[in-house]
Amino acid sequence: MLSLGVLLVTPTTQAAGESLRVGYFDLPPHTRTEGAQPSGGISVAYFELIARKMDLRGVSYSRLPLPRLLKMLERGELDMILLLAKDAERDARFLYPQQALFSTASVLAVQASNPLAAIHSAEDLLALRIGIWQDGYRSPLMRDPRLQLQTLSGDNVMNKGLRMVAAGRVDAFYFPDDFTLKYEAKNLGNQVQIKVLTMPEQPLRVYSVFSRKNGNQYLPRYERALREVQAQQPYAEFFDAFNED
Questions:
Q1: Do residues 97 and 223 make contact, with C-beta atoms less than 8 angstroms apart?
Q2: What is the pTM of this model?
């Protein structure tokens, strides 16, 4: 991820209204910039459908590391973070809509030769050294204090974690979004033989989240627009349209 924002201003609509400041972090293929089709990634393209129905003057996008985005949203320097999971601490700091943008599953990547075939509880994970993203969401099961966790930070955490699994430096890598992990594992191809196991937990709901300082002026419009767009095409269908290969 970049340490400086990449700012894109798009003419979402010319209707009277405010310009919405949206932040996002690298989470391919949901969000990405270099060589992305569509530009900015799938979730940016999907949000453009929503933004057109929100009566905005425009939308500006800032691509930044997640910790910086969270601080900026709390200070009101951004109006919205495009993709964010929910926990009690975040729910107290930010404004969450009632409806999620999409739902996904928490997953664990292990070597294809690992005898673990399914995860039923934390007991199945106690013997594993598990890599996790330092700044990312952790499901309730992954907060079990008995687990052996190794935090990873910096750029390309997903790629780093999968390669550490392949090299035996960790036994597994956890990520809260199966869309992203399966996409990255597929991109590595034959370089890394990975097996992806679904965690035995409820699907993770991912939201577009607003600042408590200034988000109230946008949240009702966003919720109405989101319902309309999802009724026409849910995010999962939109996602699949760009990944049919």
A1: yes
A2: 0.73
